[in-house]
Amino acid sequence: MNRFVAALAATGLVASTLAMAPMAAAAPAAAPEFTPAAISWGPCQTQGLKNAGAECGFLVVPMDYAKPAGEKVSIAVSRVKHTTAYQGIMVVNPGGPGGSGLGLSVLGKYVPNNAGAAYDWIGFDPRGVGSSKPALTCDGNYFSYNRPDYVPTTPQLEKTWLDRSKGYAKACAKNGPLLEHIKTTDVAQDVDSLRKALGEKQINYYGFSYGTYLGQVYGTMFPKNVRRMVLDSNVDPRKVWYQANLDQDVAFDANIKVYFDWVAKYDSVYHLGTSGSAVEKLWYAQQKKLDKTPAGGVIGSDEWTDVFLQAGYYVFGWEDMANAFAGWVHDGDWQTLKELYDSSNAPGDDNGFAVYNAVQCTDTQWPTSWNKWRFDNWITYFRAPFETWGNAWFNAPCVFWPAKAGKPVNVDGGKVQSALLIGEELDAATPFAGSLEVRKRFPNSSLIGAPGGTTHAGSLNGVACVDNAVADYLATGKLPARKSGNRADAECSPVPQPVPAGATAKADRSDRSTAKLPAELRKLVGAQLTRS
What we know:
Largest sheet: 10 strands, mixed
Strand content: 5-15%
Number of strands: 10
Radius of gyration: 22 Å
CATH class of the largest domain: Alpha Beta
Strand order of the largest sheet: 1-2-3-5-4-6-7-8-9-10
CATH architecture of the largest domain: 3-Layer(aba) Sandwich
Mean pLDDT: 91
Shape: globular
Low-confidence stretches: 3-27, 505-530
């Protein structure tokens, strides 16, 4: 999920492997035709949408498209209308799955050169999410404080986490038939219903993270209905979802080492070690300490890991995390750690986590043998200890999920006429191999890569090379020239690493970037735990 996009969700503007590859399947058989009613637009509730002049409403669609006259669900939608020569609607999805996108109708104003002004920007909460009705929830306290250690070093720890995972899946059963109809294919059909309700022949689409997979599926199911498509940080369609999560573990372990190197580079500020390996050793020592005695009685080893997981996603927030690390080590400040944890996990609200599981557990069949999970995750852990078991338990409800799994669409973008793909080459949440694979499957696409970049879904965050390419594409349809071979078609610098205040003259000032995020975006940047 794009960092700015996550921030919008967090601030109220917006109401993942060495294992079995999923079986490919064709797109679902054509359902009976459904014609949605027009959306009745009215005022929005959040101040950010009001300030943007957005209007809000609900799209009413079938729970089950095979039964269009049956039970309905209501999809919360927002719209910011065009102000220059009209080029159509731009539907936006922030990722997750489970991310709220209702507030993303404001995104157009962040496209350079006024290129976003020609579109009606459409934000929406996918079925089950946020302001849509019904909204999924299973156990709002699942991410409470000082949970059992992620790494199951004893049979009792393993049993505890398996019981927790089974209990969560059982709690989700109360959501009833929505669990059977929340697959990515269902959401793609909702997007096409949105197109119909707005009276449009085609859509334009901007997807981040998991939103790229939704875009891939939509482009496979409804290729003639796609005009232009921006897919930032591409899910690898070969690996949904079990294998994708194990691949993430290895990539996150590499990225946290990049972060530790950065902390060491600024030892004059943080005093946590003069080498990445020294910082890493200290970080794991603190994790072990917190497993025995949680900071403030609330931040144990799991919460410590979750706080720093964000450093593997983005360069945004690196200073905040390093300050919290230093504050804890030097001054015993646990309150700042708790603030960062709370901003990422929203204790008391599990809607995003519930939808994440509901989609991933039913898009495709996960292994039902815990022995396979145990073997694959221990093998991965020995190579990449930082996030492996945390990620395993994040997904473990899929072992027990109370709804039947389907088969994923065999993604084929051969009939999509145009797509701009974007990816930083060390992105951990959606490794760059996924962008290369999508490029193969979408022959009319071009890919912008960012060598050395570790930021996930970083477009429209101030890197002029990337953002201007997005603007050119939205304005004219122009794509970078397609190159031969399995590689990016153009390259840009990644989102730059920050330089902390108070850094000494010995620090490498070349980290500074001329790209500057708008002040409003900086205020909106907040942490949110995302997985794909």
